[in-house]
Write a structure and sequence with these properties.
Length: 139
């Protein structure tokens, strides 16, 4: 193969490194870490300042739900069905209704604010792994 420009061989090597199994593992790990950041922060949004039981005060529309029974926060999970896919969810029966609202209740979002709050940190971690890969540390 003839070289079109002087840096092509270096670029080819770096692109090959990104497709290596080790690189995919590093990137998958960074993706899982991002999911964990978001899931943990969503739990924090739900539980911070919340009072359970008799003194419980429901959240206002637009605010994260106020923890009462713990079902919503305790059912947040992060799964990784594929190396390049992470799912952050809550298995509480009312999780979607709180996040998105219903015809009878305004939304009390907790996942979207968590995603937005942790987006920069997650991207930074992912970029660090990409840098490590293209610099040859993932070979």
């Amino acid at each position: 193969m003839s070289r079109v420009w002087s840096g092509q061989a270096s670029l080819d090597k770096r692109l090959k490194a990104i497709r290596s199994p080790r690189a995919q593992k590093l990137l998958g790990g960074a993706l899982k870490e991002a999911g964990d950041l978001i899931g943990t922060y969503a739990q924090k949004l739900i539980t911070t300042g919340a009072v359970s039981g008799k003194g419980h005060v429901p959240s206002k529309p637009g605010e994260p739900p106020s923890n009462d029974s713990g079902v919503l926060a305790n059912n947040i999970e992060v799964t990784q069905p594929e190396i390049d896919e992470v799912v952050v969810s809550s298995n509480a029966p009312y999780a979607s209704a709180l996040e998105l609202g219903t015809s009878k209740m305004e939304a009390r979002p907790y996942f979207r604010p968590a995603r937005d709050a942790k987006k920069r940190e997650a991207r930074k971690r992912f970029a660090e792994q990409v840098d490590k890969i293209v610099k040859g540390a993932a070979d």
